[in-house]
Amino acid sequence: MILLSVSPDLETETGTSPYAVRVEDLSITYRTTFERKPTLKQAIVRLGRGERAVREVHALKNVSFDVRVGTSMGIIGSNGAGKSTLMRAMAGILPPTAGNVEVWGKASTLLALGVGFNKSLSGRENIVLGGLASGLSRREVEERADEVAEWTELGDFIDMPMNTYSSGMSARVGFSVAVHMKPDILMIDEALSTGDAHFREKANAKMSELRESARAMFLVSHGLGSIGEMCNDCIWLDKGRLMMRGAPEEVIEAYMTHVKVKKSATTTEDI
Ligand SMILES: Nc1ncnc2c1ncn2[C@@H]1O[C@H](COP(=O)(O)OP(=O)(O)OP(=O)(O)O)[C@@H](O)[C@H]1O
């Protein structure tokens, strides 16, 4: 999990803007090294020249949408569709390759599990670090740390190193930090998937509470039920493109139909 505030150049004064986020023609391309079974000779020649094969992954392609204050937006799509990439771009972790992202307010982000914590430190110590990374002052963090720790219901574990935690226990710490930092914009990426039933219920209640106070909320989930319950707006991404935006029931239905059609098409092609 990674917890941080939006970088200052991305954050705009909230003022009276009716918008929480505006994404304009956003494209994100990852550059990564790629080896398609090079022969020994090719590998040696390249190594001699100091070259590496580079592959570009177009994770988001010309995505545009705006989000008004009061929106709880679900983001759905198949594996690799670009959901986490979009969240990272909105959180200011990933700079756009092209296009713009504008964010009105302080974002609290709870992204991919395991990232962002120093596992050799205790849960309580990570709560303090997470709070500082979210842009709170030392005093504000000290004031809130006990409440955040208490919320996790981890008992004595909260003062033990996080490398002794299960993934669900880490998720509790990350979620607790993210929701207690009084964010203007809350971004949650699949965080609830590792929690047990009790935690999920508690987390859902907390998110409902936050929906009232935050300017906007984003939820990435493969659990379409949670999107339907928690969100009043939804976008569907497929292979980096924005396929549809609208009421969660309608977007979920279109996505489900697409998934089914794609499955049968693949079967036909296979024949
Ligand atoms: N750090 C990276 N370097 C290179 N490629 C990446 C990186 N992170 C993601 N990708 C690629 O970008 C594309 C979008 O990935 P992303 O994680 O945003 O998808 P996702 O919709 O969140 O998927 P999932 O539902 O599986 O979590 C994928 O093709 C993925 O392989």
Would you give an account of this structure?
With 271 residues, the chain is of the alpha/beta class. The protein has one domain: Rossmann fold (3-Layer(aba) Sandwich). The chain is built from eight helices and ten strands. It has helices spanning 40-49, 83-90, 123-133, 138-151, 167-180, 197-213, 224-230, 248-270, and strands at 11-12, 19-33, 54-68, 71-76, 98-104, 107-110, 185-189, 216-220, 233-238, 241-246. Strands 6-7-8-4-9-10 form a six-stranded mixed β-sheet, with helices on both faces. The protein has a four-stranded mixed β-sheet with strand order 1-5-2-3, with helices on one face. Helix 3 (123-133) runs parallel beside helix 5 and helix 4 (138-151) crosses helix 5. The longest helix is centred in the C-terminal third of the chain and has 23 residues, at 248-270. The radius of gyration is 20 Å and the shape is globular. It starts with 10 loop residues before the first strand and ends with a helix. The relative contact order is 0.18. The chain binds adenosine-5'-triphosphate.
